[in-house]
């Protein structure tokens, strides 16, 4: 009788331990990837899940692509291609041990941007409107617009991976680990890219300011 009771107790303990481990794993996945709730639908080819994913991340991916290319039309094409590739990869997606969805989207978008930049020259589409409001607030907005264009033009002169690191850090608010994962490099290498990008960007903007004053 004692042996039977002990066996049942062991079996119950094992069941509880298994359930606890599963719960911990599920909780970890939920914390590490906010898009896990959409993965079952994405794997099953549910367009509603894809639409929900795009609602969450399309604007962010598009901004990344625009800051990388300087062309809104190209950015739209790259954004659509990025989500199309994820849609095609979704049936084989494994949450455990794989980058989270946003990191994957950033990585693919960045690679597409680099490839696109190698094939074409940037087009600057953010122009100041012809009709200007003469109020002080309007003048301030024009100055901000001009500054933004100067910064964006300077960013486009950076080497590809340095530009990507800068965009991920400043315009995507990616952490060091997220940025490194998106570029497929170590955190140390990512920090080095970011540091060199900052230095070159600062030098470029200072040189332009000096040239404009001559």
Overall mean pLDDT score? Answer: 77
Shape: globular
Q: Provide the low-confidence segments as ranges.
A: 19-30, 122-143
Instruction: Let me know the largest β-sheet.
Output: none
Give me the strand/helix succession: HHHHHHHHH
Helical content stands at: over 70%
> What does the radius of gyration come to?
24 Å
Proportion of residues in extended strands = under 5%
Backbone structural class: mainly alpha
Spatial gap, N to C terminus: 98 Å
How many helix segments?
9
Tell me how many strands there are: 0
Describe the structure.
The protein is mostly helical. It is globular and about 65 Å long. The protein has 9 helices and no strands.
Features:
214 residues
In short:
The chain is an all-alpha fold and 214 residues long. It has helices at 2-32, 39-43, 47-69, 72-89, 101-119, 136-155, 160-171, 176-183, 187-213.
SSE arrangement:
Blueprint lengths: L1 H31 L6 H5 L3 H23 L2 H18 L11 H19 L16 H20 L4 H12 L4 H8 L3 H27 L1
Helix pairs in contact: 3-4, 3-5, 3-7, 4-5, 5-8, 7-8, 7-9, 8-9
